[in-house]
Amino acid sequence: MDRIFIDQLEIDTVIGVYDWERKIRQRVSFDIEMAFDIRAAAAADDVSLTLSYKDVAKRIIAFVEASAFELVETLAERVAQIILTEFGVQWVSLRLDKPMALRGAQGVGVHIVREAKDTAAVDVFIGVGSNIEPFEHIPQALELLEQRFGSLCISQAYRCPAVGFDGDPFVNLVVGFETTEPPLAVTLALRDIEQHCGRKRNEKMRSRTLDLDLLLHDNRVVEHDGMHLPRRDILEYAFVLKPLASMIPDAIHPLAGRSYAELWADFDAREQPLTAVSL
User: Fold this and answer.
1) 229 and 149 part of one domain
2) Could you list the residue range(s) of the whole structural domain that residue 51 is in?
3) Which of the following is catalytic: 98, 117, 204, 242?
4) Could you tell me which of 7, 6, 112, 11 has the C-alpha nearest to residue 64?
5) Can you say whether residue 162 is alpha, beta or left, with left for phi > 0 and alpha for psi between -120 and 50 degrees?
6) Is 54 a catalytic site residue?
7) Do residues 135 and 265 both lie within one domain?
8) pLDDT tens digit string along 43-95?
């Protein structure tokens, strides 16, 4: 398996068992190797198809800076689990060094290796949209999604005006399926399908062949560069909220704390007219 690595990532945090260590911040250093298949990214020369070491580093920095553990063992374990569960790697090798912690030694620490374990499947929902030959590209995308993830639950499709730019109307719908894969792995698969259907990732606020957006991954809440779960579109756009509310009306939005049926009942859709269409 290919490996993406980050060496000597230095972060200041509260770490240690002694009283004086609980009152100061000390620097720790991480060396990290992550197993990730880079062949798709290499073939397409597309950064969106690989594991972003910048995103991994920023997530770890934010977590470690806010943490206050006594043991380096605990800190190492928590960081390894974040990498495994949020970034979809198959395994992670992590060395955590606490410099100058022992007289006469340059550093002490731990070196752990953790593998992704089989987990129970969770419900995932994605938004699907197109305003360039949508009745060709959307069925193609649904076929590819079924090949990749298995059985799909497909909402009613709606025609709606383009939002944020002048363009042909979109056809939008929501698709649900079960997966054991983490959010990043799902997102990378969606981008691969978009690319297969002719989507170029620099197409923003303009007509496009296909949009595949991860809306929900179980009840997971994620807020860091490049990923926001639940996706903010749910509360902003009728073409997302209405089909989602029809599929899981009693489920609770993990941030709003209300059911999707309630959110749709209170949504003002007068400026976002929807027309049901058949694919």
Assistant:
1) yes
2) 3-115
3) 98
4) 11
5) beta
6) no
7) yes
8) 888 887 888 899 999 999 999 999 999 999 999 999 998 998 888 788 999 99
